[in-house]
Write a structure and sequence with these properties.
Layout (H helix, E strand, L loop, with lengths): L2 H6 L2 H10 L3 E6 L4 E5 L1 H6 L9 H4 L8 H11 L3 E11 L5 E14 L5 E10 L1 H17 L1 H17 L3 E3 L4 E8 L10 E7 L4 E8 L4 H20 L3 H15 L7 E8 L4 E7 L5 E3 L6 E2 L17 E4 L5 E5 L11 H16 L11 H14 L8 E8 L6 E6 L4 H16 L3 H21 L7 E9 L2 E8 L15 H8 L2 E7 L2 E9 L1 E3 L1 E3 L21 E4 L6 E8 L4 H11 L7 E11 L1 H17 L3 E4 L5 H8 L16
Parallel strand pairs: 7-23, 25-26, 26-27
Antiparallel strand pairs: 1-2, 1-5, 3-4, 4-5, 6-22, 7-16, 8-9, 9-10, 10-11, 11-14, 12-13, 12-15, 15-16, 17-18, 18-19, 19-21, 20-21, 24-25
Length: 650
């Protein structure tokens, strides 16, 4: 071996080392970026890897995540690109989605004459360190009083100044996200709103007050309140803007505030909008590139402008995105370039070409992931607010008729749950409605019929931003002997929803439940992936009720699944058996309960009385936010987070 060869190293030895290196190595050649080399680590990650295939064709599961764009940029410019902790979704061979985080450098590959031959990508999987850091940060946040106070302050500002929930109108899904540039409670002047005007129309508002800090926040709050009130009162877009414009003329700091107001008819898809000095909305249609609607020519508030409107139409499936200028005024990006990027990224996300994790709605996906993908490469200097509406098919009314039997409660609950899930009902509303409707059904089964098996009818409709259920029977009301442990069902139902009415006549009994639906908005903290108020996951699925001994503590049982009139006797029997008739202390964990009817409440009252009689303690535990904890609080049993009691606290 010659001296020069020894100094440069043996190429075969070097190739063998690269093959075994625990780093990602992907080499592409030519303008088509044909994949010509990948080491073992890379091949293990990229299940669709194929030698000599173009990058876009061979790794189609990365479409929409910006990797192809970077490779093409490096090949075109000859300038390397590096990144840290980028989130990546990769398809597994079994159809699963693997999420990882990577540090990377993508560099040009030169010929001997200096021309670009291809692109070399080097990366390292830092998922473990990212997750470890996130866990450590979370623990530190919970442990430190100062951080906890900061989060509480941000949360309080959010609830006071911006809507923390959005309506769920018939025929539309609405989502919003906002990322504060200043984490020290210095909320800026961005605001958003969604107002249900009637059964077919919803108004969407996104505005921006010049400046930051307390002054801008105070002005924002006043403008939002007036605009919301006028829209809710039926003033229409022009009338509402004129009212808030008059206020802006009298309010220091409101001059030149911008606002976009759009009213969507969810039945016909007709859209009327006005861009008062604000960037025009982005329209996202299936199978098409996103396009911006034309500005209406209206000027900012307080400038003496008129408020002309323009019109568009949304087909079922189309989305409209309203945004503040913080998303297109990012560091190092010309406004024109950032505006094009917003349309491209939002289009990919709406088409499902970006991240493929579980989501609750396409509108929420666009609101959260658009911010993440655009901000992670540039950072952000101003508050970012997004508001999205998607037109969806109207949900057909529900009509259900069941035999008035105890075992009908579970089948009724399953049908109602599926109908509500089709609307996009949030977990809390889902739990409250299932409980309230379930109590009316149980009431009819118990009281309507004596010596015959009758039927119970359940009907439901989604109008405007609320749902209405009607539970009826054609039997005669039967009173049962007075029992202090019974009769709480209707009272609980009335506490859980907006309205409950029961009317008894000679022809039967009709119970009506009416409730306004909302979904939480997304508050993004100082990171576009750190959601303080996340989208709420789907409803729990009932399972057969089980009472299981917990191995971590003697004398403890856990209850899982639905507790209703059918399973309550099983719960009573198990509690009596496990406590030896109330003579031994017992702890009951209800955190795993998916439905908790008044029949279950009665079982607990009876068990508490039994333990009190024998001088023993019955501890009832239900984690904060769980279904059972909510019902226990309403029924005044007074057992919170495992504190023992020997009698009901009435």
């Amino acid at each position: 071996m010659g001296e020069d060869e020894r100094q440069s190293g043996d190429p075969l030895t070097l190739a063998a080392a690269i093959e075994q290196a625990p780093y990602i190595v992907l080499v592409c050649e030519g303008p088509q970026l044909r994949m010509v080399g990948a080491n073992a680590t890379t091949r293990a990650l990229l299940t669709n890897w194929g030698l000599d295939r173009p990058l876009r064709e061979g790794l189609a599961d990365l479409l929409g995540q910006q990797w192809f764009d970077i490779y093409e940029q490096v090949y075109t410019t000859g300038e390397p690109v590096a990144g840290r902790e980028w989130r990546v979704h990769l398809d597994g061979p079994d159809g699963s989605v693997h999420e990882m985080f990577a540090n990377f450098t993508i560099s040009p590959w030169h010929n001997l004459d200096g021309s670009i031959r291809g692109v070399i990508g080097l990366g390292s999987d830092v998922t473990e360190s990212v997750m470890a850091r996130r866990t450590a940060e979370l623990r530190a946040t919970r442990a430190e009083e100062r951080e906890a106070h900061s989060v509480a302050t941000i949360d309080a500002l959010q609830r006071a100044l911006l809507p923390n929930a959005l309506p769920v109108p018939a025929g539309a899904q609405i989502a919003a996200s906002y990322l504060l540039a200043d984490g020290d409670a210095g909320a800026g002047g961005d605001w958003f709103d969604a107002v249900v005007l009637d059964d077919t129309k919803v108004a969407l508002v996104l505005g921006d007050v010049v400046g930051h800090g307390i002054a801008a926040t105070a002005v924002m709050g006043q403008l939002r309140a007036v605009l919301q009130d006028r829209l809710d009162d039926g003033a229409g877009i022009v009338g509402a803007l004129r009212a808030v414009d008059r206020l802006a003329g009298r309010l220091p700091g409101a001059m030149a505030a911008t606002v976009c107001v759009a009213v969507l008819n969810t039945l016909t898809g007709e859209l009327t909008y006005c861009t008062a000095g604000h960037p025009p909305p982005l329209l996202l249609r299936a199978g098409e590139a996103g396009r911006y609607l034309l500005p209406t020519g209206a000027g900012p508030l307080g400038t003496g402008s008129a408020f002309p409107t323009a019109y568009a139409r949304l087909e079922v499936g189309d989305m409209l995105l309203l945004y503040s200028d913080g998303i297109v005024d990012r560091p190092g990006r010309p406004m024109a370039t950032a505006t094009v990027e917003l349309a491209q990224v939002a289009t990919d996300i709406a088409a499902g070409r970006a991240f493929r994790g579980p989501v609750t709605s396409a509108a929420e996906k666009v609101c959260s992931e658009t911010v993440e993908l655009l901000v992670r490469g540039t950072g952000f200097a101003d508050d970012i607010t997004l508001l999205t509406v998607q037109r969806v098919p109207l949900t057909a009314p529900l009509a259900l008729r069941l035999p008035a039997e105890v075992n009908s409660a579970a089948s009724c609950r399953a049908v109602v749950r599926e109908w509500l899930a089709g609307i996009g009902v949030d977990r809390r509303d889902m739990s409250c409605l299932l409980h309230s409707v379930g109590e009316l059904v149980a009431n009819a089964i118990e009281h309507a019929y004596s010596d015959v098996v009758g039927t119970v009818s359940v009907q439901a409709s989604h109008l405007g931003g609320h749902v209405e259920f009607s539970v009826s029977d054609d039997g005669r009301w039967r009173e049962h002997p007075s029992n202090p442990d019974r009769g709480r069902g209707l009272a609980i139902a009335a506490e859980l929803v907006d309205e409950v009415h029961v009317q008894r006549t000679v022809a039967g009994t009709v119970g009506v439940v009416r409730h306004r639906l909302t979904r939480p908005a997304m508050l993004l903290a100082d990171s576009p992936t750190a959601i303080i108020v996340p989208p709420v996951a789907g409803p729990p699925i009932d399972e057969p009720m089980l009472v299981l001994s917990q191995p971590v503590a003697a004398g403890t049982v856990g209850v899982h699944g639905p507790v209703d009139s059918m399973t309550a006797p099983q719960l009573a029997m198990e509690l009596g058996h496990r406590s030896h008739g109330g003579t031994r202390p017992l702890t009951v964990d209800l955190t795993g309960v998916t439905h908790f009817a008044s029949a279950g409440v009665s079982v607990l009252y009876q068990a508490l009385a039994r333990h009190a009689k024998h001088g023993t303690t019955l501890t009832i535990d239900a984690a904060p936010g769980s279904v059972a904890q909510h019902i226990l609080a309403l029924t005044a049993i007074g057992l919170v987070q495992g504190r023992p009691a020997t009698r009901p606290l009435l």
